[in-house]
Amino acid sequence: MSRIVAYIPDDMVVTSQLSPYSCNDVMAKNISEDVRSDTPREVDQTIDDDRPDIIKKNALSVEIMKYANVKQQTLRQKRQRMKVASCIAQGFKDYCFQLPEHSLHIVGSTMNGYGEPKSDLDLCMHLRVETLSRDQTIECLGHLKRIAKHIPCVDDAEVRHSRVPILHMKLKPPYTHIAVDININNVVTVQNTYMLWLFSKFDWRVSVLVSIVKSWAAVRNFNSASQNTFSSYSLVLMTIHYLQVGVSPPILPSMKNLIANCTQEELLWTVLNTDSIADLVIGFFDYYGNNFNYNEDAISVLHGKKLSRLEVIKGTKNLAQWQCICIQEPFNYTNAAYAVYNEHIFSEIKKELRATHQQLVTNYDLRETLRISTNEYRKIMKTKPVSIARRNADLELQRKYVAIHHREYFLPTNLWIPSSTEFVSDVENRLVSSLFKSDEGDARKQSSKNMERVLYSFVELDKDRYSEIVRNGRG
Fold first, then answer.
1. How many whole angstroms separate alpha carbon 369 and alpha carbon 217?
2. What is the pLDDT of residues 57-116, one digit of tens each?
3. How confident is the model at residue 75, as a pLDDT?
4. CA–CA distance, 15 with 143 (Å, rounded to integer)
5. Rounded Cα–Cα distance for residues 301 and 205 (Å)
6. Which of 23, 182, 426, 448 is deepest in the core (most CB within 10 A)?
7. Is pLDDT at 470 greater than 80 in this prediction?
8. What is the pLDDT of residue 390?
9. Angle between helices 277-286 and 53-71 (to 10 degrees)
10. What tens digit of pLDDT does each residue of 399-415 get?
11. Which residues form the Poly(A) RNA polymerase mitochondrial-like central palm domain (predicted)?
């Protein structure tokens, strides 16, 4: 039996556009009338040096919000990936006779709230077996490769013997722009997808800052684990840590505090920080370029603070992976930035972090920071703004829904219960009745009830089976 399940960020059923305004009241009052007008206009970058810094930050905030608006995945792009996942799931259901009972989960940027138009589609296949060696994993991927030639949307497939072996798929038109990567039994990807999605729903500035950080890394070739630099996941963890520790008051809670302060009615975490998005971007590069002590400190999103490197490394087997920067993976306690072990490359990264901060506080120029071409910049400035009040209202609905349904399953120690015969995903367990249909029309016309839906399921669970799961806890 084959099932595919995934929780879907609520911005699939609301507008995905972002507002160019900052949540800082002082800043909002000083935004020019040109920006406030219904017809978006290009922001004048020739700001006189004698104008107050707050005015320059206002203009930078406008640029940042519009840039993020263009760089984040749209509803249409997410639906395309859903259709591809459905096609692949059906193919595995029809041909996976030699594999144990399995389920297929959508993970990564398509689901975690930080997707981009060119993001790959990442899938995790879970086989209900006690253990699976690397050789057995590669053997299973080889079997999936042979099956892939029968799947209508797949053009070619190859097994890649990376740190986590994957099956890489190229697709046929009209999906040639989407690459698909499938791992087997790497369930931590399902866990961290849900974690990142939840953090993205606390404040609209989280996903915007992540978009800027990822773009900054991409234009400098600092976003490839295979090239001894950061993975997208490690960049997101760095951003979350900064919003936990590097700003005052903090914007995001630690994972532990998140669990402790979650009731059946709401998440008891109020975001008091009113920094503009420009302040947060500048602060990020200041924090990691000038203030963070890489020799002594480690990043811990789980604890929401800096930990001693010695404390984090203690008891781990592979000491080499902790050489340059320590980013504790909150579920298995490995180093999420394991690929960054080359001292020379890391020195260049730190140099660029410092240089970017200096450039921003001097010029407040996003085009220079992200190396945006003139033509691209003009297109970005034409995007239409949407009010922050609308986005905050959407996030409030999402936060309350998550608080009601997910509190007891967010603990890293019990999010997944090992079993040789049973593997039930959190969302499959708790949200079976909340299916989102991609053919229901324009998402922006959905009711507020539909806006709360966070599950996309290609095959609905049997209701009796769902009741049994709820009665028996986690199986």
1. 10
2. 989 998 998 998 888 888 788 888 988 988 998 888 877 666 667 778 888 888 888 989
3. 78
4. 40
5. 17
6. 182
7. no
8. 61
9. 90
10. 555 544 444 333 333 33
11. 60-200
| 18 within 8 A of 65, measured Cβ to Cβ | yes
3-state secondary structure the chain: CEEEEEECCHHHCCCCCCCCCCCCHHHHHHCCHHHHCCCCCCCCCCCCCCCCHHHHHHHHHHHHHHHHHHHCCCHHHHHHHHHHHHHHHHHHHHHCCCCCCEEEEEECHHHHCCCCCCCCEEEEEEECCCCCCHHHHHHHHHHHHHHHCCCCCEEEEEEECCCCCEEEEEECCCCCCCEEEEEECCCHHHHHHHHHHHHHCCCHHHHHHHHHHHHHHHHCCCCCHHHCCCCHHHHHHHHHHHHHHHCCCCCCCCHHHHHHCECCCCECCCCCCCCCHHHHHHHHHHHHHHHCCCCCEEEECCCCEEEEHHHHHCCCCCHHHHCCCCEECCCCCCECCCCCCCHHHHHHHHHHHHHHHHHHHHHCCHHHHHCCCHHHHHHHCCCCCCCHHHHHHHHHHHHHHHHHHHHHHCCCCCCCCCCCCCCCCHHHHHCCCCECCCCCCCHHHCCHHHHCCCEEECCCCCHHHHHHHHHCCCC
pLDDT at residue 213 in the model: 98
User: Comparing C-alpha atoms, which of 389, 385, 285, 394 is closest to residue 61?
Assistant: 385
184 burial level (CB within 10 Å; 0-12, 13-18, 19+): buried
pLDDT, tens digit (0-9, with 9 covering 90-100), for 247-305: 999 999 998 876 665 544 455 567 889 999 999 999 999 999 999 999 999 999 999 99
Structure tokens at 29: 């009052």
Mean of pLDDT over the chain: 73
In this structure, are residues 210 and 196 in contact, taking their beta carbons and an 8 Å threshold?
A: no
Q: Residue 125: phi, psi to the nearest 5?
A: -95, 125
| pLDDT above 70: percentage of residues in the chain | 65
Give dist(CA 8, CA 402) in Å, integer.
12
CB 52 within 8 A of CB 30: no
One-letter amino acid at 286 equals: D
Q: Dihedral sign for Cα 223, 226, 228, 230, please.
A: positive
Please state the pTM of the whole predicted model: 0.74
Per-residue pLDDT tens over the stretch 21-41: 233 322 223 323 332 233 333
Per the structure block, which two tokens stand in for 75?
A: 């509803």
pLDDT of residue 398: 58
